[in-house]
Predict the structure.
Amino acid sequence: MVASFLIPVLPDKNGKNVRWYALGVGIADFFLMCYAFWKHYDASSATFQLAEKYAWVPQLGIYWAVSVDGLSVPLVLLAGLVTTLAILSAWQIDMKPRLFYFLMLVLYSAQVGVFVAQDLMLLFIVWELELVPVYLLVSIWGGQKRRYAATKFLIYTAATSVFILVAALAMALYGGSNITFDMAELALKDYPLTLELLLYAGLLISFGLKLAVFPLHTWLPDAHGEASAPVSMILAGVLLKMGGYGLIRVNMGLLPDAHIYFAPVLAILGVVNIIYGALNSFAQSNMKRRLAYSSVSHMGFVLLGIASFTDLGINGAMLQMISHGLIAAVLFFLAGVTYDRTHTLSLEEMGGIGQVMPKVFALFTIAAMASLALPGMSGFASEITVFLGVTTSDIYSSSFRTVTVFLAAVGLILTPIYLLSMLRQIFYNSGTASTCDITPSCDINDLDLKNQGSEEAVCFGTSCVLPSQAEFIDAKPREIFIAACFLALIIGIGLYPKMAMQVYDVTTVAVNAQVRESYTQLAQANPQIYAHSVLFPQIAASEVAAVAGISK
């Protein structure tokens, strides 16, 4: 954040110094994160580490409180990697470069702030801070409908963020004596069940919208469809994960009793996301909208894992967030690379470029295989872990588990259909892209394009040239390097999932233990609600005797 405010005063005429500066800041921050976690983070401990806490507004009980645990560390590293590589992928941005890189660094800090904030009001502030740079990045460097997509994103997210503020105030003020927004202290309060349910519902709306949970997902395809490739990388790779992180950190961690009642709802929504997102993805003719709906589908597995009541399930949800962050980022990056060559996002206009761009085709194919959960890649490891977590859950009835797993498996069958058909349409169909018969889509004052299009024509992607200047050249070393960074981690995690899981395993086990303890207490107090039901959790066999005694 501090580094971003130096950009306006940097000496720079053509944007080159600014981009090197922004990339240097991103790399420095990322390596500092890696060093700090490598040297000073203990993965075997579920406690908060590297903690800092300073009084900010003591009269209102607001503190600058930041720290990390197993839930935070992998997502902080994911944010650092994706944002740094997104800055590198925007190397050819030539419209308002100072503003672009300034916003990228502000967005960088806001993402990290969400994952390390331990004060609920601080979490709300950095959550809101993230909206501003995303809105400007989409509305200025977006496609033809950029203003509509950016405004929709801003209205949806800002409106639902109110629930975070209301929930924070309600939890801080409950109990009367002293006002606190510290999450550790809020977790110790004993809230009435009715209040917990209301708080959970409001937070589910807020975090669910960021996670693109049906029916709060409609902003995502519009934002992805209009955003430039570097911004799409961050949207899909990091910002979606903020919703999943919030559900685990706040909803499960602070409101475990309410989670018992909402878990079946999350499981149902997860199945809907998986199938609905896959079917809609197959129906899209716009390459980036197809990938956007694919993200909606994959986020359903995160919901299933969170709702599973098992250590495996929650571990799978975390692994799915990490895996999808890497896969989605590289897919949207390669979509931008393809757009730079073809200057179109319509699959019907593409085709015939597989032979002239074999490296792009190879990279795109590997990323698509990871997304469709090919064994040996991170997508397979995360989704099979979620499946095992749901299948082995001793809380839900067998009929509920069977239907849930079956419907989720249908989504797995649909995934290769829309991804492989997309590859065929891009690289081997006989479309107009192979002939360079493409309508101009750029209009930048710095270029001689003022009379080439309407006011809606803008610079989209990472470069802006006339179609006559378009060259179907293969992937450049910079582009290969960016894709290789993602693909190396995707394959590494796929072959050795423990590489990622060992970072957060202790923390997710502790969170699940807390939820199961709340479940046991509620099941004993309300046995008639839980016994032998399809939609609500069923009492485990080990707990039947105790509950039966209470019933008598």
Notes: Strands lie at 49-57, 62-68. Residues 432-469, 530-552 have pLDDT under 50 and may be disordered.
